[in-house]
Structure formats: C-alpha cells, structure tokens
Amino acid sequence: MASPRLNTRAFSLKRPALLFALFSFAILIALSSVSINQIQHDWRQEQHTTLTLIAKQQAEIISQQINHSLSATYLLSKQIEHDQGEVIDFAQQASYLFRHIKGIDSLQLAPNGIIEHIYPLKGNEKAIGHNILQQDQRKEEAQHAIQQQKLTLAGPFRLVQGYYAVIGRKPIFIETQGRSSFWGFASVVIPIKQLLNSDNLKILENHHIQFRLTTQRHLGEPVTQILGNTELQGDIFATTELFIADNQWRLELAQQYPSQHLIAIKLWAIAIILSILLSFLIFNLASYPLRLAQKVEKQTKKLSRLAYFDNLTGLKNRTLLQLELADTLQLLSQQNEIEQSHHIAALVYLGVDDFKRLNDAFGNKIGDELLLEVTRRLHDVCSKKDIITRAGGDEFAIILPPQSSLKSIEIWLQALLKTLGQPISIDGHQLQFSISAGVALLPQDGNSAEVLIQHANLAMTHAKQKGKRRFMFYNNSMEALVKSNLSVELELNKALKNGELVLFYQPIVDLTTSKPIGFEALIRWQHPEKGLIFPDAFIPVAEQSNLITEIGYWVLEAACKALPNFPPHIHISINVSARQFMDPQLATRMKQIIYQYHATPNRITLEITETLLIENIEQVVSSLKNLRDFGLGISVDDFGTGHSSLSKLKVMPISTLKVDRAFIMDLPDNKEDKELTEAILVMAQKLQLKVVAEGVETAEQRDFLVANQCNFGQGYYFSKPVPLDHALAYTERILIKK
Prior knowledge:
By secondary structure, the protein is of the alpha/beta class.
C-alpha cells in the first residue's frame, strides 16, 4: 500500500499538468459557446433562405397551374371570334379542353353576359341563365373586364353551385363591319379546392410549413381573401408575390424551429464531451513524462523483486539469502567472545526427498502446490525473527538467529521435520513425502555466505543418503566423503564404458528337490588395480547419480546374453533400483533390450525393493503391470524389512516374495523370527504368492522352511554367487546328480 507521503508527492508532480488541462478546458468551453452561437445563427439564415426558395418555387407552381387553367378561356374566345359569334360544337370543344387542361371545374360561355353554355352541365344547372352583368354581386369586375378588354381573375367567392372558386373571364369582341362589339364572356371556373389539395402544398404541411395565399380585389368589396391558414405561426417567415392576370397575389410561408432548448442541450453536451476528451488528452500529454518516470520506477521495483524474491512462493531467493547471511555474519563478528559462546546462530538447509520423482509422476502443477504447502508450513513453524528463503528448486534455507544452545536447535529441527512431513492431499492425490535437513553453524562452519550454504547443503545431502527424514550437522569429514564418492563415480563411469562390470550368479533352488530353478544376477566390479569390488562399495554412489539407471540396463542386457546358456526352465532374476523406476522410458527400454537379444520374457524376473512400494505406488503399479503383461516376473526383494502393507501387496502385480535373510539367519532357534517367518509364509499362501527365503546357510534352516511350505531358497548352503561358467557347471552337476 502506497504511503500518504508518496501519494502527496505524486499529486504535486501532476499538479501543473492538471492546472494546464483545466485552463484548456475553460478555453475550449468559451470557444464552444462562440461556435454554438454562430452555428445557430448560420442555421437560422440557412433555414430562412431555404424557406424563401420554397416560397418562390410554390408561387411559380401555383401561377403555372392557374395560368394553365386560364388558357382555356383564350382558346374558347378564339373559337367564338373565328366563328363570328356562333356557338358551334361547344360541348365537343369544351370536352377536349376539359380533358387536356387540369385543374378546371367547368367551362362557360355567356353571350351578352348571360350564361347559356356550361361544360359539364351536370351539377352546374343552377348557373344556366345567370346574368353576370346584372345579377352577380361582383358585376363591377365583369364591367371592368369589358372596359379593359382583357382577362380578369375574380374571386375567390362562393358560386351559385355552392363551392368556392376563382373565375377567369375573357371578354369576347366580334369584328363586324369594321366595328368591334362585345359578344359576351368565355369563363373558366377553377375551384379553390384544387389549389388547397395540390400535392406540393400537402408536402409543405408534412414538413410543418404553414402557408397563406392572399389576393386583394381591385373592385367590389375591399376584403382580403385567405387561402390556407388565417394566422401563421412560426419562427421563420418568407413572402413572395404572384402576378396572375390582373391580380396581385401573395404567398406567405411560416415554419417553426425545432425545439431550440433541446438543440442547445445537444450542442452543449457534445461540446462538453469533446472538451473533456481534449482536456484529458492534453493532461495525458502533459503528464506523460511523469507517468513514464513512474512506470520506470515500477518496473525497477518489479525487476528488483524478481532479482531478490522467488516468483512462486514469494520467499526471498538465493541471492537475498547470501546477502542476509553476510549481514548476519557481520553482526556476529561485532559480538564479543562471551556473547558468541552463549549464542549459536545456524543456517538450516531443507530439501524435499525424491521431489523430482513426485514432480515427474504427478506433474509440475502438483509439484508447485506441494512447494507452496511447504512454504505455508514453514511460516507456521518459524518465528518472525527467522529468515525463510527458497534456495532453489525443492530446497529451502532458514537463517536462525542466535539460539541459547545446540540442543534447542535440535529440538526445533525435530518439530520442524515432523510438521513439514505430514501427508498432504492435492487434487485428489494423497501424497506422503518427507524432508531432510542439513545444518551449518554460524560462524563456526564458514566465514562467508557461499561457504555456509555449501556446507549446509552438503549436510542435507548426507542426511538423504542416511535414509532421509532426518537432519544432520555439518562436519569436516563430509567433504572427504564427497570427494571420495566423486572419485568412485568418475571411475565407475569409466568402468561402465570399459566393460569392467561383471555378473555373478547365485542359484535359487526348489527346497524340496534342491534343484536350481533360477539364478539371481549380482553385479561385481572387476577393477584393473583394486581387484574384485563388491556392490556395497559402489552401488550407493551410483544411486546418488544417474549411473544407476544405465547400470540397471547393462545388467538386463548381460543377463539376456547369458540366458541361452542355461537350461530352458532356468530363469534369471535382476535387481531394479527405485531410481531406475523414475525413468519414464523404463518399460520401453527393457522391452527393446529383450527383443534385441531374442530373450524369452517369462525367463526374466525383476526384483524390486519393498521400499519402492511405500511412495508413489500409483506410478509403480502402472509400470509393473506394463512389464508383467509383457511377460516378465515381478518379485519383492528383502521383504519384511520395509513398511509395505497387506493392502499394497494385494494391488501389486507381483508373483514372488523374497524373505530377507535377517529373518532366516537365526532360524529355527529364534522364536520371534520363527513366528514372523511363519506369518509371512501363511500370508503368501493366502495371496497365492511364491516365496524365496534368502540367506539359507544350514540344513536346519532348510528343513524348517520346507516344513512350513516355503517354495524356494537361496544362500550359501546351496552356493555362493559365482561367475557365469561356474554357475553353468553347478547347474549341470546338480541336474545330472539328481
């Protein structure tokens, strides 16, 4: 969590950028206000211009429509003038005009001002006989038309037919003997309805544009006639004049603005959002150097943590362990001799036993969870003064501050290993594991961090070699042993390449017939200088390295080569180490070797130690079933010395138990060994397993085993391990003798 001081510092660094962003925001808002006002003004101007153009366009349309309709009066008058006042085929002529000229309600001829001819007549009968010059309320307009001798447009007014219309009257004059005399009128009736229902005016109404069409009559009642809305309401007005015939008309349009309040809100909303975004951008640009510096600082802290802390557990790593050790040594060096003698500091180096095997068997995820659980348990056991670190892989290191005595460290270590070694369940897997520890005392066991870590690690390695689940204190002899083991390992590696390893064979006999039914292949090292070396001197070293795996495959290969020399009923047993079972290619490589030498699988028996059944039983069972199905026999060696349970034996794909010689050597005199051996034999019979008793050295031991229905025996009573040629001679001699 960041401190208030750091937060205040960060704010003070950002303050200039924030003030600059606020100033920019104010400027942007002011510019937005000017821009919005200008936009509204320009919009109103544009709307007014648009409405004026619409008004002129609509006025032109109305003028064209009326003038087009009035053209019928010209055509009729010309026909009458042509016919010298005779009305010939009026109906036919009117019908033709009626069809081709739109917007006409009726055509009329009024000789001497009296309406005598109307087309169409239907619906206009009342107008027949009407005297325009005498009876009409607007006779002055008719008189004016005669005087002016030109077309006049009267109306709008209600006709005798009952509807409003405008009437175009064209006075007709006939030339007779050089004189022009008034004949009458040719009239066209244009209903107001035709103008009001025009598509163009409807379109205006759909766009919320109101209109008003007015005309001022020159004669008669001085009343302004209204077409459209009596009162115009709106924010924008446009007016245009129409000159039709002898009349001056005016078209007025009005349109309301959309809600100015809503538009203003939208414009201001857009302006504010854009101003905020631009201000934010300005703030980001202005504060970029600061953010870059903070990012660099954050990455530096992250890299520093990666350099000194473990990514999985969060513990201090090996680098920080060395620094902490150096600091502790520095503090100890400042104490006087009395203080140093009464207080003992220590470096405890911990390792999970067989962690690689667990990790390979169950996967990295389970392995990581196991390490996290160990970390949690370390936090539970250790005090706040203890420095807990992850030294690497499955290894942890704890720096214990000065303690009162060595005994107190031992008691603490016993409690630590007991707590850490408790079983754990991860993703349905019940894991049993153990911890081994090595201890280096400060400053007795090293005057530098590197040396202390090396010595504590060495002590842990010796604890693992001594059987695991324990702790050991460092002593000088450990280094000598390490050097000796390293020398043996190097020589053993050469021996494997130079063919110095050999197999000896010890017979396994049928106790009832004393005939050999098989041989156990036992490895020896024929050293060119030291002579014959027994496995106790080099197998433990091979177990600590990967050499044991290659030696195991060499033993199988040598046994396959020797197998054809023995009678067909003889099998060969070979020992397979627990470390070799960690090889994921175990079954594949064994099958390849057996195929290579054309060996019969059921003549080969694999001997595994009982301790292999304790840990990772699922993987062991899977591998053994694979090999058993291939045809190999499976035998449990040194049975009785480990901790295998009856339930584990029931699920194991084994065919034979080999009772350890420790139970046989004191038979039949030792009562406890006698009872244990009898119990093992009864159990094996119940499980239908064969039993081989190891270490048979006397006839009394053999007789006891036979009496308790033990199948087979192995030991010096029959033969010690011998080279191949001696084993073949033994077999031939016993079989011929029997």
